[in-house]
Amino acid sequence: MSNLRLGVNIDHVATVRNARGGDTPDPVRAAKLAEEAGADGITAHLREDRRHIGDADIDALMDALTVPLNFEMAATPEMQQIALRHKPHAVCIVPEKREERTTEGGLEVAREENALAHYIAPLREAGCRVSIFIAADRRQIDAASRIGAQVIELHTGAYCDAHAEGDFATRDAELEKMRQMSSYAHTLGLEVHAGHGLTYDTVKPVAAFPEVMELNIGHFLIGEAIFRGLPDAIGEMRRLMNEARP
After folding, report:
1. The domain containing residue 140 runs over which residues?
2. How many domains, the chain?
3. Per-residue pLDDT of the chain (246 residues; tens, 9 = 90+)
4. Active site residue 196
5. Catalytic one among 35, 72, 96, 214?
6. Domain of 207: which CATH number?
7. Residue 183 contacts by C-beta under 8 Å, 6 or more apart in sequence?
8. Which one of the listed residues 196, 211, 214, 224 is annotated catalytic?
9. Quick check: is 246 in a domain?
10. Is 116 within the bounds of a domain?
11. Burial class (CB in 10 A: 0-12, 13-18, 19+), 191
């Protein structure tokens, strides 16, 4: 098995900052701490409503980071132009609704296949690795492959929610679906990532999938950092990932 990468999402450091206004806590400082603690990359989602990460944060992250930035964004003309201006290492196309608290599901790629193919072409030409955030569904994976995405990120939210609710039959069914679809995506030549809602209790089964190359984890780590500090919170997640991936 290859080494499993950890991407740390620092969106919710900005959520805390924006709750009161001002400059603290600084998401760029959190990103640098995560880098020092062993994160392989930093994820930041610039939402259309700018509810947490702002444009200035993306500017500062591009200047400060020595690890890759994974720029999460909706498939809008504005976000495409921002990505083309910065040319981050990776862009991850995600669904976005203004009324949602967080990303609720995977992108509907099959229904928007033609539009998305044209949308991501300039991003690929600019040198960005294009990732599509989708459910563990064969139809969506096939569509992601056809439009030219290099990476898929499997939405782990349903699995994590079922675990939290004690619905272990649903949890295990979701996990098996992700296992099968990560293997299937790999046969198509897609790099497989996973994320959303992962915790210390849920990370190891997903980390054990040999085809998964990267996990992106944010909200849980920022929450744990309140109690144990960000480096220690990341270190514990890395330890669990390493145990799952011998």
Report:
1. 5-241
2. 1
3. 468 999 999 999 999 999 999 999 999 999 999 999 999 999 999 999 999 999 999 999 999 999 999 999 999 999 999 999 999 999 999 998 655 555 567 899 999 999 999 999 999 999 999 999 999 999 999 999 999 999 999 999 999 999 999 999 999 999 999 999 999 999 999 999 999 999 999 999 999 999 999 999 999 999 999 999 999 999 999 999 999 987
4. yes
5. 72
6. 3.20.20.70
7. 209, 211
8. 196
9. no
10. yes
11. middle
- Residue 107 burial by CB count (10 A; 0-12/13-18/19+): exposed, middle or buried? buried
Nearest to 83 by CA among 124, 31, 29: 124
Which of 12, 45, 155, 163 does the annotation list as catalytic?
Answer: 45
Judge whether 113 counts as a catalytic residue. no
Q: Is 12 a catalytic residue?
A: no
**What is the 3-class SS of 160-206, one letter each residue?**
HHHHHCCCHHHHHHHHHHHHHHHHHHHHCCCEEEEECCCCCCCHHHH
